[in-house]
Specification:
- By secondary structure, the chain is an all-alpha fold.
- It has a domain at about 25-70.
- Helix content is about 85%, strand content about 0%.
- The chain has 3 helices and no strands.
- It is flat and about 45 Å long.
- InterPro entries: DUF2496_YbaM-rel.
- This is Pleiotropic regulatory protein RsmS.
- It comes from Photobacterium halotolerans.
- It holds the Pfam family DUF2496.
């Protein structure tokens, strides 16, 4: 049988998971990325630099896609 503390933690985790399920896709992705970076102990400055590269790459891809539609 779970202790009251374990039940509270379990319920709290369930609430967070449920809230994330209902969250917008970009929030879900952001939470996943934060988890990935934190569990791999990625330095925040390094993560921000890498994210700027990713942002630029995605912006170029979006621009190309828009140009193709014209």
């Amino acid at each position: 049988m779970m202790s009251k503390k374990q039940q509270t933690q379990s319920t709290g985790q369930h609430t967070v998971k449920h809230a994330l399920t209902d969250a917008p896709k970009e929030v879900q992705l952001a939470v996943d990325l934060i988890y990935l970076l934190e569990t791999n102990n990625v330095d925040p400055e390094l993560a921000l630099a890498a994210l700027e590269i990713v942002k630029t790459d995605l912006q170029v891809k979006l621009q190309r896609k828009q140009d193709e539609q014209v």
